[in-house]
Specification:
The chain is built from three helices and six strands. The chain is an alpha+beta fold and 128 residues long. It has a four-stranded antiparallel β-sheet, with helices on one face. The longest helix is centred in the first third of the chain and has 16 residues.
């Protein structure tokens, strides 16, 4: 089963454009990533620039509306992610628990919807 582990760093919502994490913390995260790669479970993972460098596209009234960051109303933002392939939700949580995260960081673990998770009537639409 594939899971996405979403890193939510507290305070990142107000980070300045180009803000970078502490090099010592990056080193610990790279070692953590290597552990997951060596275990054969890490499919992908990347850090994200702060929201102040991003944009959001909303669709009010069915038309795209672009809003440049930062996003004042946002309390939690993503700082990065990993995609892992493990046997269970419990194993995904165990891997997230091993992360050398800071006190201000939270990891949300979410299972990725696979094609087989959809009911047959929806799978038929996709296959058509």
């Amino acid at each position: 089963m594939r899971f996405m582990m979403l890193m939510i760093p507290g305070g990142y919502e107000s980070a300045a454009p180009g803000a970078m994490p502490d090099p010592g913390h990056v080193e610990k995260m790279m070692a953590y990533n290597k552990t997951m790669m060596d275990a054969g479970i890490m499919l992908s993972g990347d850090g994200l620039h702060p929201p102040s460098m991003g944009a959001r596209v909303s669709f009010k009234g069915g038309k795209p509306l672009v809003t440049d960051g930062p996003f004042a109303e946002t309390k939690e933002v993503l700082g990065g992610y990993w995609i892992i392939d493990v046997a269970s939700r419990e194993e995904a949580i165990a891997w997230a628990s091993r992360c050398p995260a800071l006190e201000t960081e939270t990891i949300e673990v979410r299972q990725i919807q696979e094609f087989e998770d959809f009911p047959p009537e929806i799978r038929k639409l996709v296959a058509a």
